[in-house]
TrEMBL record:
Belongs to the short-chain fatty acyl-CoA assimilation regulator (ScfR) family. It comes from Sphingobacterium humi. InterPro entries: Cro/C1-type_HTH, IrrE_HExxH, Lambda_DNA-bd_dom_sf, Rad_response_metalloprotease. PANTHER family: ANTITOXIN HIGA1, BLL7220 PROTEIN. SUPFAM superfamilies: lambda repressor-like DNA-binding domains. Signal peptide: none annotated. The lineage of its organism: Bacteria, Pseudomonadati, Bacteroidota, Sphingobacteriia, Sphingobacteriales. This is Helix-turn-helix domain-containing protein. It comes from the Bacteria.
C-alpha cells in the first residue's frame, strides 16, 4: 500500500476513533484547516506537511507516527455484547480504538519477533447447549491451562499469557464487551471499564466473553446463549467441586458472611455465588430467588457489601516495550509513539529510568 493510502486510512481511523465528523475536526483545529483540505487527506489525494501532521495528531490525541504505521489489523466477525441500541458513531469509536491499541501492540511484538500462536483447547468440544456441557468445558479449560481448582488470580494477565489480547475501553454504557479474531489468528477480548468498573466484574465479563470466543453454540436463542456464557464464567471462577467444598453438597440457607468470604477469596460476586449454588444443586430455586430478591432490595446488585481486593491488569505491553528499548530494538521516540505519547510525556512518566 502506498504512503498516501496508508495515511488516508489511518487519518479516517483516527477521526472515527474520536467520534469526529470532518466538520467536528475542523472545529477542533480552530478552523486552521478547511473541511475541503481534510477531505482530500482522507481520500488519499495529498499528505499534509509535518506542521499540519503535528496539528492533526494533537487534535486527534494520537502520535504522529500513527498516520504511517503499516501493521495490519483486520477483524474477523465481531461479536458485541449489548450493542444493538448504540448509534453507529459509538460503534466506530469502539472498533477504531480497539484497532489503534492492537496496532501498537502487534507492531511491538513484530519488532521483538514474537509469534501470535493460539490454540483453542475447546475446539473439539462440539456444539454446546446445556449446563452440563458448559461445566465440562470449564473443567477442560482449567485442566488444559493447568489452573487446578483453586482461585484464579488476575484474569487479564492469564488471558494475555495465553496470547489472548485484552483491550480496556472507556465508552458508551450500552456496551459491555466484544470478542473477535484479528488477522484471523489472534484472539481479542475488549471490555468497557465504565460497566466492569470493579475487579470482580472485570473477571466475570472477561470470562463471559471468553465463552463467546472459544465455544460453539447449538441452535439457541440469544438469551439462552448469554445464560450459558454466564454459567461458563461462574464455573471458571468457582468449579463445582470447589463450591461444594466451601458450602457443602446441600444447604437450606446461606449466610452473607460466608458468601462474602468466598467472594474475597475467589473474586466472584455474591449474587453469582448464589446462582452458582443453585445450578450445582446446593440450594433450591425458590431459596435462590428469595436471596436474589433480598440482594436487589438492599441494592447489593449494584454495590455489594464486600469487595474483592485482587488486581485485574496486565503489564505485558509495558514489559515488552522496555525489553525492546533496553535491547536497542527501538529508540526512545519509537517507544513513546508505541505508548501513544509524546517524547516529553514519555520521558516525564519514566523519569527515574532515564
Amino acid at each position: 500500500m502506498e504512503t498516501k493510502a496508508i495515511f488516508a486510512e489511518r487519518f479516517k481511523s483516527a477521526r472515527l476513533m474520536n467520534g469526529f465528523s470532518l466538520q467536528d475536526l475542523v472545529d477542533a483545529l480552530g478552523g486552521t484547516l478547511s473541511r475541503q483540505a481534510l477531505h482530500r487527506y482522507e481520500k488519499g489525494e495529498v499528505i499534509p506537511d509535518a506542521e499540519k501532521i503535528n496539528m492533526l495528531s494533537k487534535a486527534l490525541h494520537i502520535s504522529p507516527d500513527y498516520f504511517f504505521t503499516t501493521t495490519k489489523v483486520e477483524f474477523s466477525d465481531i461479536k458485541y455484547s449489548k450493542l444493538s441500541r448504540m448509534p453507529q458513531k459509538e460503534v466506530a469509536i469502539i472498533n477504531e480504538t480497539t484497532k489503534a491499541y492492537l496496532s501498537r501492540y502487534l507492531e511491538l511484538e513484530e519488532i521483538i519477533g514474537l509469534s501470535h500462536s493460539f490454540d483453542n483447547p475447546l475446539k473439539n468440544l462440539g456444539k454446546v447447549s446445556t449446563y452440563e456441557q458448559i461445566n465440562k468445558a470449564a473443567e477442560r479449560l482449567r485442566k488444559a491451562w493447568s489452573l487446578g481448582t483453586g482461585p484464579l488470580f488476575n484474569i487479564v494477565e492469564l488471558l494475555e499469557d495465553k496470547n489472548i489480547k485484552v483491550v480496556r475501553l472507556h465508552v458508551d454504557d450500552d456496551f459491555d464487551g466484544l470478542q473477535t479474531f484479528v488477522n484471523k489468528t489472534i484472539p481479542v477480548i475488549a471490555y468497557n471499564e465504565r460497566k466492569a468498573n470493579k475487579a470482580d466484574r472485570i473477571r466475570f465479563t472477561l470470562l463471559h466473553e471468553l465463552a463467546h470466543l472459544l465455544l460453539v453454540f447449538a441452535d439457541t436463542t440469544e438469551k439462552q446463549k448469554e445464560t450459558l456464557c454466564h454459567q461458563f464464567a461462574a464455573a471458571m471462577l468457582l468449579p463445582e467441586d470447589t463450591i461444594k467444598a466451601e458450602l457443602g453438597n446441600y444447604r437450606n440457607r446461606l449466610s452473607t458472611i460466608e458468601l462474602g468470604n468466598i467472594k474475597k477469596q475467589y473474586g466472584i460476586s455474591m449474587q453469582t455465588i448464589v446462582m452458582r449454588a443453585q445450578v450445582c444443586g446446593i440450594i433450591n430455586s425458590n431459596y435462590a430467588k428469595q436471596f436474589v430478591f433480598l440482594i436487589k432490595q438492599q441494592n447489593w446488585k449494584a454495590e455489594e457489601s464486600v469487595e474483592y481486593q485482587g488486581i485485574e491488569e496486565s503489564n505485558r505491553f509495558e514489559q515488552l516495550l522496555f525489553r525492546a528499548l533496553i535491547e536497542d530494538q527501538i529508540s526512545m521516540s519509537k517507544a513513546a509513539a508505541l505508548s501513544n505519547q509524546s517524547l516529553a510525556e514519555f520521558k516525564k512518566q519514566h523519569q527515574p529510568m532515564f
